[in-house]
Design brief:
It is found in: Membrane. Keywords: Glycosyltransferase, Membrane, Transferase, Transmembrane, Transmembrane helix. It comes from Methylovulum psychrotolerans. One of its GO terms (cellular component) is plasma membrane. This is Glycosyltransferase. The chain has about 350 residues and is an alpha/beta fold. The protein folds into 2 domains: about 5-220 and about 295-344, Spore Coat Polysaccharide Biosynthesis Protein SpsA, Chain A, CATH 3.90.550.10; about 225-295. Helices cover about 55% and strands about 15% of the residues. The protein is built from 12 helices and 8 strands. The protein has helices at about 15-30, 50-55, 75-85, 105-110, 130-145, 160-170, 180-185, 205-220, 225-250, 260-295, 310-325, 330-344, and strands at about 5-10, 35-40, 60-65, 90, 115-120, 155-160, 190-195, 300-305. The chain has an 8-stranded mixed beta sheet, sandwiched between helices. It is elongated. The protein starts with a strand and ends with a helix.
Amino acid sequence: MKLSIVATLYHTAPYLNEFYARSSAVAQQQAGTDYEIILVNDGSPDNSLAIAIALTETDPRLRVIDLARNFGHHKAMMTGLAQSQGDRVFLLDSDLEEEPEWLPSFAEQLNTEAADMVYGVQCQRKGTRWEQLTGSLFYKTFRAVTGLAQPDNIVTARLMTRRYVNALLSHQERELNIGGLWITTGFKQCHQTVRKHATSPTTYSFRRKLSHFVTAVVSFSNRPLTATLYAGTLLTSTALAYIAYLSFCATALNTPPTSTSTLIAALWLFSGLIIFFLGIQGIYIATIFTEVKQRPYTIIRHIYQQPPATDSQHSDLQAEAIAAVRQMDVGELKAMLAARAVRD
């Protein structure tokens, strides 16, 4: 198979019909009829799954992977990549903030530079001033702590060769950060400047961003542990120097320290440092605990796909599917989903 287009579903119902139509059109331009579209439903609370299943009724090139619950964007993407079969895999978000029409320019650059991945980079991060600030801080801190040269303002959209995808899937992390895995997998990677649209509000709250950052750091760096060693050495050295100073004052100058507040402050400071360092090590222990269990990072509830249609049937069925879904209301889609579940 020449091409796989992979996207995830989460609060994407308003954009799904257009995304499917545009993705199908650009896939036909690039691969003729030898392509597939894979949509991974990451526990979307809206009717994205019902719309996607309705589209599979008349398009055998469309496959919908319904996960058992919401596992997270990165894990859903890895599941979609694992299900793909194309020689080239185009990964992007389905909310139309990233355009399916980027595929031809990505493919041209992939061929011209003999690369294994071409990914999109924004000139300026979209969102509010606070989102831009926290995003910039994330990338700078991530590079400083992990040593990985992750570019600023990268987007999900990227075109990858099959050998790169296979290498990416060989990683066995359970608490994964796909941004770091893209870099550590290696091969020749090139970027292309794109303009990402703002069609929907972000689903990444500050709490989720902070959790994402912690996962990224502990997954790719042991520098915090090294920093703990250096900090402990420094504190021990300064403590010994201070003890020597107090001993000198008591013996040579006959002025022993008697301030209770100094003792309380010292106990308070060192107690806090001990708890902080134990917290850092606790994060790593928690990560080890998760990894050794070797649980699957996603669970597939069901895969929806129709048997392959002939080439002469496909174009007519595809147009009929798009028109039919646009005329349905939510109730009809839910009824179709229920009927499909009974048949299965």
